[in-house]
């Protein structure tokens, strides 16, 4: 196995097992809590009655579309990522021979230098079991391990002859606080039709959980944010426009104080997640 494979493995696993060190009372990004995300959609409350919201009393993970107004200031937590190399797909030929199944966990120890019972081993097992679960009603889901598989999956939804493009949030600099107030400077809707969100999963190489909600409208935006320290972030902002199929027990709706179908639910994307859209 090549050194680049092992390096990628450890960088990804170390990042995903580190405590993000950010309290829950800020606008968190869904993939900051990768394990919790597998249990629920992870939405949380937000009430926007002021032009500027303080860091002390603001408690959303997910929010609503009206908060994205030019001039509004909101606290957001963007994780610092030195580079996206650990989140880039490896070529299919480097991973196709490695079993991707919870039944093959003992065999996987031959490929990955992790100790049974360690956080890394637990992350591998949880990701495999998550990827093997039945998809939610009305969704087409897949865990993808190569750019080729991502392309095949996306074209199966968007159209077999369609070109695709990947949209990501920009990286923050090492000098940017992971949590600070951001002022919304510009918001542009990306008019695409079908939208496929993909979330990085904890695994020794890049694995993305992609999901497409059938017969559901989404709106996708690129939002330019200026932090208190002067740094800028161009952030992907996705709104699920129809929450009517969601469970009344969804944490998103409970924390937002909403019932299914009462409102859209939106969230920012960290740089290690991505959205696939038609070219």
Automatic annotation (TrEMBL):
Show the InterPro entries listed in the entry. Answer: BURP (IPR044816), BURP_dom (IPR004873)
Give the signal sequence positions. 1-24
Record carries keyword Lipid biosynthesis: no
Please list the residue ranges annotated as the BURP domain: 62-279
Matching Pfam families, A to Z?
BURP
Q: Which domain of life is it from?
A: Eukaryota
Q: Which UniProt keywords apply?
A: Signal
Q: What name is this protein filed under?
A: BURP domain-containing protein
Native organism = Hibiscus syriacus
Q: Which lineage? A: Eukaryota, Viridiplantae, Streptophyta, Embryophyta, Tracheophyta
